[in-house]
UniProtKB/TrEMBL annotation:
GO MF annotations, alphabetized: cadmium ion transmembrane transporter activity; ferrous iron transmembrane transporter activity; zinc efflux antiporter activity
UniProt protein name: Cation diffusion facilitator family transporter
Biased composition (Basic and acidic residues): 312-325
GO cellular component, one term: plasma membrane
Membrane topology, from the record: Multi-pass membrane protein
Protein's GO biological process: intracellular zinc ion homeostasis
Ranges for domain Cation efflux protein cytoplasmic: 232-307
Principal localisation: membrane
Record's subcellular location: Cell membrane
UniProt key word Membrane: yes
Region (Disordered): 302-325
Pfam families linked to this entry: Cation_efflux, ZT_dimer
Keyword Cell cycle annotated: no
Length: 325
């Protein structure tokens, strides 16, 4: 009996059709958000670019470049969402969801480029100050930049949280930061109007610093995803769910990872060592069902059952030399 029960530890995975349909709908909503926000930000950047040429404001140039970079982040994210909808293959057995992480790296590089270019232009203008023209239009462009970014930020954050896409939420927060840097351009315009020409490049440098802070946060977010980091509260929640499943004596381990904007789980539970193979399988299926329905954005779970007892028994002795501490 013990030998049969020990082999009942064969993992069982569950990925319901409903979850798959939900994932496809989430990707479709994400694509729609990206398309609309891309159009809004491109129009915003285009209007600002015209005023940059007319005014020569380096602060507005930095803001325009940042808005353009923010709009372009929609491109790699859209490609990632599209790839994530593809079915798993024998080579990519977990599917293509991790394409979002690759898109995140591209986004970080785009933010880095915008920071470097904005800072370079601001330093040049500090060394060679120039009069700002059309100050009123510069102020108007700053307000336009704030309005466009704040609208996009609200839209991305709302939908990103609803579909569980950390990349989309982070991109929304990025847009919100862009909005506040647009308001900072007003300071440069105000300074220029009061007869302080250096106010414009100084604000340009401040905007560059703000972009660097966004870069730090975005890089940290992508690093966490690449290292399979999750919120410890999710692990606690999974353990609580499993502990409440009838037949589960103890939860041995819980491992969670994000694949795109969906969670996947691998867990080990202990069941009575006298339990039949069929009964142990039923407990595993109940545990999967509870996890998938009670843990937000969990799309699939693999449950490994181990026999609990008898005292002194080591059911994994043959594997002892293969487990690293």
């Amino acid at each position: 009996m013990l030998g049969w029960v020990a082999h009942a530890v064969t993992p069982h995975s569950h990925d319901s059709a409903g979850k798959t349909d939900t994932a496809l709908e989430s990707s479709s909503r994400g694509m729609r958000v990206l398309a609309i926000s891309f159009a809004v930000l491109m129009v915003t950047a285009a209007v600002q670019a015209v005023i940059v040429v007319a005014s020569g404001s380096v602060a507005l140039l930095g803001d325009t470049l940042h808005n353009l970079a923010d709009a372009l982040t929609a491109v790699p994210l859209a490609i990632a969402f599209s790839l994530g909808r593809r079915a798993a293959t024998r080579r990519y057995t977990y599917g293509y969801g991790r394409a979002e992480d690759l898109a995140g790296i591209i986004i970080v590089l785009l933010i880095t480029a915008s920071a470097a270019l904005a800072g370079y232009e601001a330093v040049l203008r500090l060394l060679d100050p120039q009069e700002i023209r059309a100050v009123g239009w510069v102020a108007a462009a700053a307000v336009i930049g704030f309005a466009g970014n704040e609208w996009v930020a609200r839209y991305r954050i709302k939908v990103g949280r609803e579909i569980g896409s950390a990349a989309l939420v982070a991109d929304g927060l990025h847009a919100r930061t862009d909005g506040f840097t647009s308001l900072a351009v007003l300071l440069g315009a105000g300074g220029a109007a009061l007869g302080f020409p250096l106010a414009d490049p100084v604000v340009g440098l401040l905007i560059t610093i703000a972009i660097c802070y966004v870069l730090r946060d975005a890089a940290r977010e992508i690093y966490h995803r690449l290292m399979d980091a999750v919120d410890p509260a999710l692990v606690d929640a999974a353990e609580d769910v499993l502990a409440g499943v009838e037949g589960v004596r103890r939860v041995e381990s819980v491992r969670l990872r994000w694949i795109g904007h969906a969670l996947h789980a691998e867990v080990e539970i202990l069941v009575d060592h006298d339990m039949s193979v069929v009964r142990a399988h039923e407990v595993a299926v109940r545990a999967e069902h509870r996890l998938i329905h009670d843990l937000p954005r969990l799309r699939a779970a693999t449950v490994h059952t181990d026999p609990d007892g008898p005292d002194g028994a080591d059911h994994h002795a043959p594997l002892a030399d293969h487990h690293t501490p």
